[in-house]
Prior knowledge:
The protein has 2 domains: 7-104 and 224-241, Rossmann fold, CATH 3.40.50; 108-217, Guanine Nucleotide Dissociation Inhibitor, domain 1. Helices cover 39% and strands 12% of the residues. It has 9 helices and 9 strands. Strands 5-9-6 form a 3-stranded antiparallel β-sheet. The protein has a two-stranded parallel sheet with strand order 1-2. A two-stranded antiparallel ribbon has the order 3-4. The longest helix has 17 residues, at 202-218. It is globular and about 75 Å long. Belongs to the Rab GDI family. InterPro entries: FAD/NAD-bd_sf, GDP_dissociation_inhibitor, RabGDI.
Amino acid sequence: xxxxxxxxxxxxxxxxxxxxxxxxxxxxxxxxxxxxxxxxxxxxxxxxxxxxxxxxxxxxxxxxxxxxxxxxxxxxxxxxxxxxxxxxxxxxxxxxxxxxxxxxxxxxxxxxxxxxxxxxxxxxxxxxxxxxxxxxxxxxxxxxxxxxxxxxxxxxxxxxxxxxxxxxxxxxxxxxxxxxxxxxxxxxxxxxxxxxxxxxxxxxxxxxxxxxxxxxxxxxxxxxxxxxxxxxxxxxxxxxxxx
Length: 243
C-alpha cells in the first residue's frame, strides 16, 4: 500500500532529528530514514562494539574487550556544560524526558609532565599546583569581576570596555602570570589556541561565567554527558516528534 508524506528526512544526525521532530510536532507527516543501523550520523555513539569494527572495516573486536553490547563509542566525543545553550534547548523542548545524564566526575589538564585535576571548589583550588599562591589571589579577583559583570550595567565594567578591551589587556590589568592565563584560557574557557587573547574580553568573561554557573549547579564538575552516549541526543529529538 502506497503512503504519501509531506517531508522526507534523510539521515539521523542531530540537525536532521531536530528538523524531523519539529515538523512532526507541527502536524506534518514525516518519513525519516537512514542507511545506518544507528542514530547520530557522523557524531553517533556506536554500539555494540562489533558495529564499530564493522564500520571501519577492521577485524575484531578481541575477546579481551568483553561483551560488545556494553560499549557505546562516540565518533566525536563531547561533554556539555550544565548551563550551556544545548542543555537549555533540551530542557525547553522537553527532550530531557528521553535522556539520562551523568555528571562527569572531573576534568584534567596535562602540564609539566603531570596530569592535574582542574579545581572544582575552593578547597581543590587551594591544594592545586596549577598556579602559585599569588596567582591564585589574582585569579580570584578576576573571577569576582567576571561573576559580578553585567553587560547591561556599565557600573560593573570597572573602567573595562568589554567590546574594546582585549582579553590580553584584561589579563594584564589583573597582572596574571602565564600559568593562570593558560589555566583560564584552556581549562575554563576551553579555547584551543592563543588567538582569543586578541579578541574583545566580553567573550572570555562570558565563558568564565558559563563555566562557573555550570560548576555551581553540580559542585563536582561543570560537565554533563548522556549516560548511553551522544547518539542519545538525536534519538531523543526523534522520539519527541513521534508523540
